[in-house]
Design a protein that fits this description.
about 300 residues; alpha+beta; 3 domains; 16 strands
């Protein structure tokens, strides 16, 4: 051939190899793409049988169905789908907040149908305090003796008023007496009285001693009449009527006048022995103050010198 003229044997072999090798490669590519003929069928059947056995092992619940539907001639029919993945879980419903956590509602106290827990029982005091005598006193009075009645009293028991221990005398298992000082009732209000031992192992139920506001004069000191031997105070009642009083007179049926000065009128409650002061009140302003100028009445005939 003219193509190989003038060529050496080695060069001829190289040229033949360059022509034949691409042709062989093209044949192999065509066989891979379009399959093979009769001799390759046993291999396909073997692969399909292997796949069928694997499918029967993965789906043991359907062996008969797979056997009846397989066709040896078609490898695609013999393939059985294998479930390898779990089912897809759908997302949350529309409008539902996946970040919202359930919070248990707090029961409303005393709600309808709600069970109310039973109250804790209070222990019964070992000592019984029944009554006091007197039950009420006036503030600013002197000290007095308090009679305490009850039960289960003992010689070691003491009477306490607002936590202050009082001198106590044991009379019987049902009676005690205690001396209440004037300082304990200096101001009005209620005082808590209890009977207990100093170590507080035995105690009684508490009761109240009522300390009341003492009665006070309702008159107003509005004027002063100076005299040679004694002064005269001018008082005004709530109706606006004026009264003149001197030292020793009784005002409102219970207050004795003890001293009259420009600053005020001193009186003493003759029933409770409590002192009160009626300060001077200006008739023009209605406020307390000092008498700006005492009223000096004309001298009487007996006071004039002969």
């Amino acid at each position: 051939m003219a193509l190989f003229e003038g060529k050496t044997p080695a060069e001829r072999n190289k040229m033949l190899a360059a022509l034949v090798l691409p042709l062989i490669a093209l044949i192999f590519v065509v066989r891979m793409l379009f399959g093979s003929s009769g001799p390759d069928k046993p291999t396909a059947n073997t692969n399909s049988n292997t796949r069928r056995q694997q499918a029967s092992r993965q789906n043991p619940s359907q062996p008969n169905q797979a056997a009846t539907t397989d066709t040896p001639d078609d490898p695609l029919i013999m393939m059985t789908p294998v479930s390898c993945c779990p089912e897809f879980v759908e997302g949350s419903e529309a409008g539902r907040n996946i970040f919202a956590f359930y919070v248990k509602p707090t029961p409303t106290p005393n709600a309808a149908g709600a069970a109310t827990p039973p109250p804790t029982p209070t222990p019964t005091p070992p000592i019984i305090l029944a009554s006091l005598a007197p039950q009420s006193v006036f503030a600013r009075t002197a000290g007095f003796t308090l009679q305490v009645a009850g039960d289960k009293f003992g010689p070691a028991d003491r009477v306490y008023v607002d936590g202050q221990e009082l001198p106590t005398q044991y009379r019987s298992v049902q009676q005690l007496t205690a001396t209440v000082p004037a300082s304990a009732i200096a101001n009005p209000g209620q005082r808590q009285v209890v009977v207990r031992t100093p170590d507080n192992k035995l105690y009684s139920n508490p009761t109240a001693l009522n300390v009341m506001q003492p009665p006070a004069p309702t008159y107003t000191y509005v004027g002063l009449l100076k005299r040679q031997h004694s002064n005269t105070a001018v008082l005004k009642d709530q109706k606006g009527e004026l009264y003149s009083v001197r030292e020793g007179d009784i005002v409102e049926g219970r207050f004795r006048v003890t001293e009259i000065s420009e600053r005020g009128v001193e009186v003493v409650d003759k029933d409770l022995n409590i002192k009160h002061t009626m300060p001077f009140v200006s008739a023009s302003t209605g406020t307390p103050g000092r008498v700006p100028g005492s009223i000096q009445p004309p001298p009487s005939v007996s006071d004039e010198e002969p």
